[in-house]
Design goal:
- By secondary structure, the chain is α+β, with helices and mostly antiparallel strands.
- It has helices spanning 2-12, 32-38, 83-95, 106-110, and strands at 22-24, 44-49, 51-52, 68-69, 75-80, 100-102, 113-116, 122-128, 131-157, 163-189, 195-199.
- The chain has a single domain (2-142, 179-199), classed as Immunoglobulins (Immunoglobulin-like), CATH 2.60.40.
- Strands 7-5-9-10 form a four-stranded antiparallel beta sheet.
- A hairpin with a 5-residue loop joins strand 9 (131-157) and strand 10.
- It is elongated.
- This is Carboxypeptidase regulatory-like domain-containing protein.
């Protein structure tokens, strides 16, 4: 839980600095009144399940990888799609990479709602108003990888008992390690009182 909170805070607020990365913020004006109004009380509910899959070497989710549900207590964050947020997301989609981080202002980050998953990865946001929202979670999972290692040598002999070739024999070994993926989704509540069911 502590590790996940560290990842979330560092991602959005920049409280923890990464000297090796360039940092950018949206240049749009953050309208507190707009954000406050969008996350005020309504009669709708968003509920869903958070899960992830291991990615391949190219950064895409492997089709045959096992789906793993978010662990109990995983934080799911909901942001209203304000003008400022839309600018932040556009900037992140365009510029974020291993050398660049795109952060929100601390004020903008405060205007969010959080839910936590149960033992089955389920979460719920209640008393929501109609509008567009963005949901995001850092989902921990167990990844699997492999390596090849020489475990023997195969030697061939001629009829005189002389070695004529030698070939290394390799075996494949599998191991597990902890990893995490960022899972996100845009959703829209179209009318008050709606129950919106999603998969994150």
């Amino acid at each position: 839980m502590k590790t996940q909170l560290f990842l979330i805070i560092s991602l959005f607020t920049g409280i923890f600095s990464f000297a090796q990365k360039d940092t950018f913020y949206p240049q749009a004006f953050f309208d507190k009144k707009q954000a406050q109004e969008m996350i005020s009380y309504g009669k709708s509910t968003i509920e869903g399940v958070a899960s992830t899959k291991q990615k391949n070497a190219y950064g895409f989710k492997a089709p045959l990888a096992k789906k793993q549900y978010a662990k109990e207590g995983t934080v799911v964050m909901l942001f209203p799609c304000t003008d400022y947020f839309n600018e932040w997301y556009k900037l992140r989609s365009k510029k974020e990479n291993k050398k660049t981080q795109i952060l929100m202002s601390e004020d903008a980050f405060k205007y969010r709602i959080e839910a936590t998953t149960d033992a089955y990865g389920r979460f719920k946001f209640e008393k929501m108003k109609p509008g567009k929202y963005y949901l995001e979670a850092i989902v921990d999972f167990t990844a699997t990888s492999s390596y090849r290692q020489q475990t023997a040598t195969e030697t061939g002999y001629n009829v005189y008992g002389q070695a004529i070739y030698s070939t290394p024999v390799y075996s494949t070994f599998f191991y597990n390690y902890d990893s995490a993926n960022r899972e996100s989704k845009f959703v829209e509540i179209k009318e008050d009182g709606q129950l919106l069911e999603i998969k994150l």
